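dumping this here before i forget
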Amino acid sequence: MKIAVIGAGAMGSLFGALLTEAGQQVTLLDVRRDHVDAVNTDGLIVEKEETRRRVRIRATQDADSIGSTDLCIVFVKSTQTAAVAQTVTRLAGPSARVLTLQNGMGNAEALAEAVDPARIIAGTTSHGATFLGPGAIRHAGSGDTVLGPWSEQGMTGAKAVAEVFDKAGIATRVEARVRSVMWAKLFINVGINAITALTGIKNGQLLDLEQTRRLSRDAVEEAMAVAAARGIAIEGDPVQKVFQVAEATGANRSSMGQDVDSRRATEIGAINGFIVREAQRAGVPAPVNRTLSALMETLQAHY
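structure:
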């Protein structure tokens, strides 16, 4: 399968490497010249636990040099999704699928403005990755990847992509109600990302103090109220799930935390900011998420 990974940060590079090692024809597309040059010259270095391997994979800044593909995987920041949608239309062949595994909400909708929704697959992944520098990433943890069709017509394509992922060692399941899955992932991001980014702590340290746990709980419960108002099915106890994920990824810095550390724009608008906007539409109060969003926007405006 000919695959373009659009956005070769930590996660994009990780998935590109795993798919390449499984024999797929993968090209990484990224705006950073230093990363592209390093990958093309020396390969992509993937660290995991005590091991270090080099993956030979093609990288480019020029979308037109890739040509028509069978699958486009979008891994850019949510703030860039609308801008890359036209690039996706150029790369996606006549029967190609477009997959978003991005953080936050609104990405599939943005892609659907340019691509037939029947060709869009959306999902989440529990893999963790850290960008170490040009040409190098750390595979910080493995977990399930869940994806599903954005429209009812896309189930066949979702199953085909899942099969390719499974063969690459990316354990994947297909879920018809993928929107509920994405909300479940949103709850985790709402409860962890902004708090860790603003305070400079690692995920596990969120659990150290009762006041921090309470802040996370309040943010997630507001998001749950918004989901309920929208008729989204909520399974299990999302707050407890957030705490479990924080513990399981205790040594990791959240993706938003990594963005702050590197003085990059964050995805606050697609996570806590999304909850604020949806709460306003639904007439549901969301003061904690509003405050976290305002603080994060203030911080990144004054880098």
